[in-house]
Amino acid sequence: MVRDKRIKCFSMDGVNLLLEQHTSRVSFMNNPKQQKPTLTGQRFKTRKRDEKEKFEPTQFQDSIIQGLNENGSDLEAVAKFLDASGAKLDYRRYAETLFDILVAGGMLAPGGTLADNVIRTDVCVFAAQENLETIRAYAQVFNKLIRRYKYLERGFEDEIKKLLLFLKGFSESERTKLAMLTGILLGNGTLSSTILSSLFNENLVKEGVSAAFAVKLFKSWITEKDINAVAGGLRKVNMDNRLLELFPANKQSYDHFVKYFTEAGLKELADFVRNQQSLGARKELQKELQDQMARGDPLKEIITYAKEEMKKNIISEQTMITIVWNCIMGAVEWNKKEELLTEQAIKHLKQYSPLLAAFTTQGQSELTLLLKLQEYCYDNIQFMKTFQKIVVLFYKVDVLSEEAILKWYREPNMAKGRSIFLEQMKKFVEWLKNAEEESESESEED
User: Fold this and answer.
1) Angle formed at CA 180 by CA 81 and CA 146, multiple of 5 degrees
2) Closest alpha carbon to 282 in 313, 317, 318
3) Who's near 140: CB < 8 A, 6+ residues apart?
4) pLDDT by residue (tens digit) across 153-164?
5) How far apart are CA 243 and CA 151, in angstroms?
């Protein structure tokens, strides 16, 4: 009887189980978008290499200084230590502390003095020997560190800007080493010239600290590269026009800058700044000439003004004729029809021929004008057929001499359209040569 009850119970449970499985299967088939089971509260273990040891600034400092002292003056070993330490120490968080230690030997307080109650290391720039070779070795430590941890780039530039503001708090020797380091790092591209903006600080400028530091910095930079690289670096961030700000307002003149840096042994930099001045003056001169032409001012007044500016800004006649040519050719809207363009060009250039003649008193200036004409006619295709007619006009109105034209014809100076223009000039040059021979014959007979 008991056995029969168990069989019956088992049979009922089996049927119920089968019914439940069937119902579940049907439900799944009818609801294909049924949500998949998810795990909640799951914790992922951080990879060991991503873990950073958490330190306070003083603990971080102690760890770095201990490692530097253990490696001593072996800067290769120091670089390897810093590379390895970045995996466990939080460089991103304590970048300022890290760079303070590498430059000054410990954390700096506001003003540039070492913070109170901190240990110091002598494995730093300020404690190094004061020579380029040693400072270059330290620069390599910074290069390797920043190449390894790219996120330190911004922090390092901020650090250098801060250190430049602290210059008054450093000794003369420390300033010299910092200047050398900064120049080297500007030369190899680790730093941008934007860091120089800190040198324009009013207090540093007023006491002459900025200018004295800049001398050492630029000497180091030019030694690493050359003046062209320095000029390029300055232009890239628009610092080339701000160098006068290294001096107080009452001394911000090009003459004072040139004198100061020339006497300090940086004539290349002085010449660069003088050229920048000349470039600025040339731009202003060109704009004023354009305005005078647009107003229709008398040519005598324009010539007088141009000659005064040329003398005042020490502009060569070759440069001046280029400026004048550009102004004249930009003073009119040219006809698009070729047959009308030639007539328009001849009339326009004849009007301004006295202005051109005023700045072609030298053979080299005449050749410069010829080359500018050649370039213009080549770059503006509608002028290609007018080249010879313009040269003839300039010859007739005494802007160009026979000697200058023959020299241009004989000596290749510019490839732009030369073969085409030589062909155009062939008959006129032959006429000039024949006229020259006849003139020589008449002279011999006399």
Assistant:
1) 35
2) 313
3) 75, 79
4) 999 999 999 999
5) 30
**231 near 272, Cβ under 8 Å?**
yes
**R_g of the chain computed on alpha carbons:** 39
Question: What tokens were used for 115?
Answer: 């913070």
End-to-end CA distance of the chain: 163
Residue showing tokens 């295709």:
381
Measure CA 185 to chain center: 15
402-434 burial code (b ≥16 CB/10 A, e <16): eebbebbbeeeeeeebeeebeebbeebbeebee
How many secondary structure helices (H) and strands (E) does the chain include? 20, 0
Please write the tens of the pLDDT for every residue from 78-114: 999 999 999 989 999 999 999 999 999 998 988 888 8
What is each CA distance from 144 to 19, 79, 96, 332, in whole angstroms?
72, 7, 17, 58
The structure tokens listed for 173 are 């020797």
| Rounded Cα distance, 265 and 223, in Å | 12
d(CA 336, CA 374): 19
φ, ψ (nearest 5 deg) of residue 108: -95, 140
Alpha carbons 393 and 27: distance in angstroms, whole number:
100
Tokens encoding 350: 């004849």
- 362 CB neighbour count, 10 Å cutoff: 14
Summarize the confidence of residues 393-410 as an average pLDDT: 95
Q: Taking each helix axis from N to C terminus, what angle separates 227-236 and 209-224, rounded to the nearest 10 degrees?
A: 120
Number of Cβ within a 10 Å radius of residue 347: 11
* Residues linked to residue 108 through DSSP beta bridges, in sequence order: 114
* Residue whose pair of structure tokens reads 């600290």 in the numeric block: 209
Contact 187, 219 (CB under 8 A): no
DSSP string, 290-305: HHHHHHT--HHHHHHH
Please say whether the beta carbons of 405 and 446 come within 8 A: no
